[in-house]
Write a structure and sequence with these properties.
Radius of gyration: 32 Å
Domain DUF632: 10-177
Pfam families: DUF632
Structural class: mainly alpha
Protein name: DUF632 domain-containing protein
Distance between the termini: 79 Å
Largest sheet: none
Number of strands: 0
């Protein structure tokens, strides 16, 4: 190899070295920017989101407690007034059918919304945690001491809470099924004296078929 060729090779190596240094500097700058966004912008938003969730579930629990107390009071009031006004307060089967099916539909709709909410929360935190741990070869074995930053502690801890909504969903399914079955049984036991059009609304087989379809 001639001297000229050696000089050319040296120039090429120097040029590559310069490009490499520029690339490394760019990567470091981008990494610092990402870390700054992560700690100064993303973390406060996540903490605010968690505080919002905490407030939401607290208010939801309080609303459910108020609803339960209201229902208990309504049942006591109904039990106290029903014996003396039974012949005035007799509810038609058609009206009972509408109320029962509407209640079941509302419960099933609430169940679907609740499941969608929990699923979206879980998907969000898993996606966020996966993004944070993307550089780690084995995210499942990550310990909080591996990443001292607060955002890792928050997201990893959140993703590993292990919340299970199946118990709540099963209870809602059971209630809807029980409500529909109870009403269907009542229709079988009590003769219906409404019009033909109204009878289509409360037909036992239709009640049971509709309920099975909704619970699939």
């Amino acid at each position: 190899m001639t001297l000229t060729q050696l000089v050319q090779q040296e120039l090429i190596v120097r040029d590559l070295h310069t490009q490499l240094k520029v690339s490394i500097h760019s990567i470091e700058s981008i990494s610092e920017r990402i870390e700054s966004l992560r700690d100064q912008e993303l973390l406060p938003q996540i903490l605010e989101l968690l505080r919002g969730y905490a407030r939401m579930w607290k208010v939801t629990a309080e609303c459910h407690q108020i609803q339960k107390r209201t229902l208990d009071e309504a049942k006591r009031l109904l039990a106290a007034t029903m014996p003396c006004n039974h012949h005035h307060n007799k509810i038609s089967t058609e009206r009972l059918a509408r109320s029962a099916l509407n209640l079941v539909a509302q419960v099933l709709n609430w169940r679907a919304c609740f499941q969608a909410l929990i699923t979206s929360q879980r998907s969000y935190v898993l996606f966020l945690t996966d993004w944070l741990l993307r550089r780690d070869p084995d995210p499942e074995k990550v310990t909080l001491s591996t990443y001292p930053q607060v955002i890792y502690e928050v997201c990893i801890g959140w993703s590993r809470l292990g919340l299970n909504e199946k118990h709540v969903l099963d209870k809602l399914d059971f209630f809807a099924s029980w409500m529909g079955s109870l009403f269907a049984l009542k229709l079988k036991e009590e003769p219906y004296s409404g019009t033909r059009e109204s009878m289509e609304l409360v037909e036992v087989d239709k009640v049971e078929s509709w309920l099975r379809l909704q619970l699939k």
